Amino acid sequence: MDRISALPKHILHDILARLPEKDAAMTSVLSNEWRDTWYSFPILSICDRIIIGSYSPQIISKLDKLIGYVTRRLLKLREQSLTTKVFKLDMRPEHNNYMSHHFDLWMNMVSENRVEVLELCLLYFAPYLVRQYDLPRCVFEVRSLTKLVLKGKITLNQSFFNHSIKLFSLRTLCLRELLVEDKGIIEHLISHCPLLEDLTVYCCLVYNRKNPFENEKFVESLFLHGLQKLKEAEIQGIKEVYIDAPNLENLCYAYGPFYNLEVPLKLNLDSFTRLRCLRLRNSSITEKWLLDLFHKFPFLEHLELCSCNMLERINISSAQLMILEVNSDLKEVNIDAPNLLSFDYCGDHRAIISFLTSSDHLVFNASPVHEFRHGYYSLREFIQNIKPQKVLASLSLSVYHSNGFVYELLMGRKKQEWFDHFGGTKCWWHDLKIVKVTYSFNVDEKLDFKNAVNAILLSTDDRESVSFSLEL
What we know:
By secondary structure, the chain is an alpha/beta fold. It has a domain at about 405-470. The protein is about 25% helix and about 25% strand. The protein has twelve helices and 27 strands. Strands 1-2-3-5-7-9-13-15-17-18-20-22-24 form a 13-stranded parallel beta sheet. It has a five-stranded mixed beta sheet with strand order 4-6-8-10-11, with no helix packed on it. Strand 2, helix 6 and strand 3 form a beta-alpha-beta unit. The chain is globular.
């Protein structure tokens, strides 16, 4: 026996916990000792896409093997009276009919084993084609649970109102795209988590069990009280939100693209006296609301406004703001933020951006949105509209265009076209003499430059690149 295998089990478990999941699982084939260590390892992460793969005629046989494997590991932990520290289950919901009984069994076993982290993911894309999974009530009696993540075709029924919830240790709760039989179930559940620090509620649906083919409606309101420990919250797809959380520091709210964005924002922020980071997406806000924001939250350091329906002009005035992200079409942006370190802008290329005060360490990242035909030629206008010019200590240009255009441009065939559009004024591009190409992947020596560019620009899955070094 090697010296590592002779180490105590808890040390070997700590070693496995530090390895990638795939590498940790491979240790089970090293020896009988390592196999026994793996089966007593209290962290289980099961994903049918990885273990089973794509659909095949042998799918039932593969599912049976998966069922046997998971059951044996959980039984091993129970036999040795070991706590299940983490149990993650990521399954395609089309297996629900065959797997629901085993899901129930596993939920009961990990609950009895005092599970600390439980993640169940049954994300779906065709809600009416597969059966939903009714989550056992035993999950909400686990006093040891510190993190609970529920995603996908999982149903919380009305019996939860009459059932004891004992999530006294829960600090992280994520509810994503769940089916609830009553819109008040989510509020009822959260109200019984006194130590909650991190909350996510994402596009949950009100589900009618008697008529499942009836149009499902999103949960439209969320009223939460007494969350004294809550520090981070992400809410998406809910029209009206009120959260009483005086210690909240980080809030992300997305109204949702499926609602009318002309409706005023119904997000109560009055209790968030310590808010440091606010992210708003797909929301309707006004200039006055934005001005009041910095008076209400003197500690706000990070503000993100993405796809927000607002006025054409915004004014940002804050001595504490350090990070600003704007992704909306505007005509004018005025920034008075002496401690601003990072500003990301994505929007209309005609916007006038003025820095009344700025830090010497400001990093300005701009992705102006152009009309397709005039994108390159309006770049000069966009840069000239940035005041003062001293904030542009350096400039990085990213070009997104068809592969044919990139090839023609680099090979010099588009120079005259650029010359014409700039009114006869030549730029550095006309003095370009050498283009050096570096590939991050192996290429055939016979592969010409144009085909190489075509191959990499048409690829969407591989993280491969072509780098161009330009010399004058």
